[in-house]
Amino acid sequence: MSGVADEVVHLPVPTLPSSLPPTALGGASPLADQHGRVATDLRVSLTDRCNLRCSYCMPAEGLDWMATEQTLTDDEVVRLVVLGIERLGIREVRFTGGEPLVRRGLVDIVRQVRERSAEVEMSLTTNALGLARTADALAEAGLDRVNVSLDSIRAETYATITRRDRMHDAIAGIEAAVAAGITPIKINAVLLRGLNDTEAPELVRWSLERGYELRFIEQMPLDAQHAWTREHMITADEILASLEAVYDVRPDGEARGSAPAERFLVDTGDGVAGRVGVIGSVTRPFCGDCDRVRLTADGQVRNCLFARTESDLRASLRGGASDDEIVDRWRTAMWGKAPGHGIDDPSFLQPTRPMSAIGG
Ligand code: SAM
Ligand code: SF4
Hints:
Blueprint: E1 3-4, E2 9-11, E3 31-32, E4 38-39, E5 41-45, H1 74-88, E6 92-96, H2 106-116, E7 121-126, H3 131-141, E8 145-149, H4 155-162, H5 167-180, E9 186-190, H6 200-210, E10 213-217, H7 236-244, E11 248-251, E12 262-267, E13 273-279, E14 292-295, E15 300-302, E16 309-312, H8 313-318, H9 323-335, E17 349-350, H10 355-358
Iron/sulfur cluster is lined by residues 50, 52-54, 57-58, 97-99, 127, 149, 356.
């Protein structure tokens, strides 16, 4: 089992790092790191709160939620996202959480970002509860598409994993997103030993029949309870073996680029076929091609899901920093990104923040 970090270190305003990012002097330049990667994909957590309690994410009783005054306001979120797009080369913005649909200002944030950028690709990672009510408004505000977490299409299994009997609400949310045109729909599923690990083939069939792209995600050591163990997680190899046992599965042959999912063409043999992804974050890491940067709901830049340091843009915002100062601080935070997550390293320590407070 992984260790537990004592506390997150908040980086001070950059002084003289060992080597400076290319243009730590203002002006437009991308979010580069010292290992040759450039971040163009911004994940923005809008809240750490959630209406589900997925067992691999948080405990049944929930967590001590972030205080409202710690959370970035809608205007602060929009200012940072727009700076990312206009000054730092961000091309894709994904709102996440916690559950982004519980954030009251979500539609307005999407609208404001869209008003400033027609080109940026904007999406949502969501459990889809309540999406049936907001899909039209999100589409109208300028959201492009949604990724929905759905670990089972059996109501009982879903309720066991999420600790809430809400599967039908989630499916209604997905259907509303389709009707509103915020597509293509991607479905994320985490397989858990003894709970839904035999359900991969039926999740594939269900998704392909509806034209959704399903991605299986390996369980990562990012749960608030620190209960993850390597022995217990279902690996990418196991996921593929369970599909190969019943379907024809072959690599899709397309270049993966910075996409975390390895993609496979799956044919069920009875007229249902399509692409399925496997995100082997633990056993098949893709850190060398990572193009992501994260902003937490309290305004901390994290250059990696597993980072052990953060850079406090909220302090900059609320301290009256100029746009130049904010983007320089952001670039410096990115420059220090580690080459890999190091889960296999004996010295690996799980970050203090759980996935729900980082933004998955
Ligand atoms: N609440 C939204 C949802 O569930 O889609 C957005 C936030 S959630 C943290 C984002 C994604 O992270 C979901 O697809 C979820 O399944 C995944 N996730 C959460 N904890 C995880 C873990 N320990 N390992 C792998 N994936 C995890
Ligand atoms: Fe909530 Fe998403 Fe975590 Fe499930 S995975 S508890 S839906 S934040």
